[in-house]
Amino acid sequence: MSLQADDHSPNAPAHAPRGLLRATVTGMLAVVLVIAAIGFVGFLSQLHGAETKPARHADGIVVLTGGSSRVSDAMELLAAGYGKRLLISGVHRTNDASDISRSLPDSQSLMNCCVDLDRSAVNTRSNAAETRRWVHERGFKSLIVVTSNYHMPRATVELAHAMPDIVLIPFAVVGDKWRDEPWWTNGATLRLLLSEYVKYVAAEMRVRLADLGLELTSEPPDQPSGSLPQRRPATAEAN
User: Fold this and answer.
1) Whether CATH 1.20.920 fits 60-227
2) With helix as H, strand as E and coil as C, how does the chain read?
3) Strand 85-89 to strand 167-173: parallel, antiparallel, or no bridges (unpaired)?
4) Using 50, 70 and 90 to split pLDDT, how confident is the model at 184?
5) pTM summary value
6) Would you state the pLDDT for residue 116?
7) Which one, of 149, 148, 153, lies nearest residue 200 by Cα?
8) 35/186 Cα distance (integer angstroms)
9) Where do the domains of the chain lie?
10) Half-sphere exposure of 22 (CA within 13 A, CB side)
């Protein structure tokens, strides 16, 4: 006589729920990973691989500090007449106009006449808040936004939410590393993109919830200010 347990044995029901739970969790994780991968591809599709001049002129220009050559590119746009004034948002509290002038000696006259410094912003969300204040004080209706290509999607989300009445014209700065080698071959660049994608998704979710009247806690600084050097020319809080 066989002693093998059938489907009605006491042990069978104990294993079935565990197997079903494992399969459900595995399936949910797979769905989340697929959605995240699709979202990451969509995020990458927004990133420019080469710098192109803005499609039109604007009332003002804002550059969000924190990346290589952002400020110098913004100054070039100002010199070319793409905007009337430039706001450098997120300048480190120990930096002043003379520090920027020393790093960009050809821009001294523009620094004296047409550039404003914002030292209050510590992250992208506060960049947007300070930019909104500056734009409304100046009566501007259009704005060229200068920041790194990987940061542009999140910056656009925050700025558009803060200033729905302002026309935003992106100018994405493309770094040397992005030009020199594919991003997927460089571990540091890949980590940067993954980190920025997570921040971008979080910003999108926060903005959508805010539109529904559900305001979340404030965004932490993109980089702790304590880790910054005391004095850096033409840059400030990283974004």
Assistant:
1) no
2) CCCCCCCCCCCHHHHHHHHHHHHHHHHHHHHHHHHHHHHHHHHHHCCCCCCCCCCCCCCEEEEECCCCCHHHHHHHHHHCCCCCEEEEECECCCCCHHHHHHHCHHHHHHHHHHEEEECCCCCHHHHHHHHHHHHHHHCCCEEEEEEECCCHHHHHHHHHHHCCCCEEEEEEECCHHHHHCCHHHCHHHHHHHHHHHHHHHHHHHHHHHHHCCCCCCCCCCCCCHHHCCCCCCCCECCC
3) unpaired
4) confident
5) 0.78
6) 94
7) 153
8) 24
9) 60-227
10) 5
Tokens for 94? 């120990």
Residue 78 or 212, more confident: 78
What share of the chain has pLDDT > 70, as a percent? 79
From the CB of residue 75, how many other CB atoms can be counted at a distance below 10 Å?
24
Six token digits for residue 88: 């450098």
Two structure tokens written together for 51: 């710098």
